[in-house]
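Narrative of activities, Objective 1.

The group set out to show that a structural description can be obtained from nothing but a protein's sequence at a throughput compatible with the screening campaign. Below is one input-output pair from the validation batch, recorded exactly as produced.
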Amino acid sequence: MKISLVVACGLKNEIGANNDLLWHLPADMAYFKELTMNHHVLMGRVTYESIPKKFRPLVGRENIVITNNPGFTNENIRAFTTIEAGIEYAKSRNETELFIIGGAKIYEQTLHLANRIYLTKVNEMFPQADAHFPLYNTHDWTLTKSRLQIKSESNNYDLYFEIWDKMKKRF
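Output recorded for this entry:
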């Protein structure tokens, strides 16, 4: 099973502030939906609760929520107390590509497990951010695809949609 991180971040790896996104980008939301539809998505509880109620759980996807609270339950999600248990659950359901969708702590704990990063780079800096995507060594990854979307009336920033694949070790 492929493990992929899906993230949108600013030029300084900013991903959020006060448990919310820093932008409203319909193009990125459409891309996210297209990527993750009919797959398992794994996220932290805070990220899950930051999704507006009318959109959660994410429809058409198996929602896996990682929480320190073993009593946390919610209709139509699978809650686990460890990332490993969430990954094993997706494997047991014959998932081909598990999408990890945040937040910052979950990204930090799973970056080393990932085979791919779907990165939307927002061409702007957001000094108010209090959550960041972890730094990673680009020498360990290969940029396999990149597409620019120029800002528009509905998307206030230029966006770079990038796909980074982990390089195989050469030993």
